[in-house]
Amino acid sequence: MKTYTLKPQDIERRWWLVDAAGQPLGRLASRVAQILRGKHKPTFTPHVNGGDFVIVINAEKVQLTGRKIEQKRYFRHTGYMGHERFTPVQKVLGKHPERVIEKAVWGMLPKTTLSRQHVKQMLKVYAGPEHPHAAQQPAPLVEAK
Fold this sequence. Notes:
Blueprint: E1 15-19, H1 25-37, E2 53-57, H2 68-71, E3 73-77, E4 84-88, H3 89-95, H4 97-108, H5 113-122, E5 123-125, E6 139-140
Parallel strand pairs: 1-2, 1-6, 2-5
Antiparallel strand pairs: 3-4
Helix pairs in contact: 1-4, 3-4
């Protein structure tokens, strides 16, 4: 048997709609990352962008388990010595809830140029229940529990 390699002309993309309301952040992010890479397809090829588009709605209603809402902080550095900045997740959820999901999904992907494409072009996150992608007819992603 020969190894199958996905070619760009053979890629079939779908649009998935994920409702983040009441879902744990980590489980949601790992499933979305899997779909963005295309690992749910039998034609998965690591070096080809064969994944699907994902629309995440209700980002403001995502759940954080345990005491993460009080303890989790995001780190960034300004570039100057001693200028580390820590932002609590509660503050980020209040101002830009879509960034929490984007950052969690980015953490689940390999740090490559292909993964940057996945996050920037194929992941669409919205704080509320409305999204402008109705023309693509996204199918709801139903998880088996």
